[in-house]
Amino acid sequence: MTAAVFFGCTFIAFGPAVSLFLFTIAREPLRVIFLIAGAFFWLVSLLLASLVWFISVQISNKESASQQKGLLIFGVVLSVLLQETFRFAYYKLLKKANAGLLALSQEETMPISIRQLAYVSGLGFGFMSGAFSVVNILADSVGPGTIGIHGDSQHYFLSSAFMTMAIILLHMFWGVIFFDGCEKQRWLAVAAVVISHLVVSCLTFQNPQYISSLVPTYIIMFSMGIWAFYTAGGSLRNLKLCLTCKDKDFLLANHRPR
Q: Where do the TM regions start and end (predicted)?
């Protein structure tokens, strides 16, 4: 593998998320702080899931392949549930933090809305999730070694990059839908986020049959993206205005904070 593979896969995996960060978050210090905090919450959830899984492996029969596979599935499910638990905990924390900011602010409206917090925290979750998903894979992409020398798929790195990109964007969409569901007490929307997260995570067990995991994942991603778009106050009209550069940053700046 060459450096071109490394930089190409990095661009695919993180390009859209980095672009969103630069154009919608980087210039706002408050948004950057909440994004970093969201990434930290995701990291803590991973730490707890890893600790439980490590203990489970140590007390299990390491010579039993079926038991180890069961523990792997258990670890994935536990990790997803902990991530969504910490997403809810972060929502509750942000609600209190926003109320405090409103009390300190001289303005009558909150300095950052719940919709903006949902987007920013979701992207923070996504960045950290993507980093842990693909950083070791990218490190291996520069060699030594040759992918597929024993008959395996030649598209391992490329598939991993596309899966990472989908996971990052999904976390952003999940954040918008999850926060809106909590805010309006639409628990079916919250349940849909948790279930779709479980489905996407379990789809990775289809690898190395990458089509079987990537295609359903991208279908879920586009579905969640459309849902999050309308949840955030989007419409076909302002999408057209955005694409024609007549409505700058419409999802983040042109709605009233609540």
A: 6-25, 32-59, 71-90, 117-139, 159-179, 186-206, 212-230
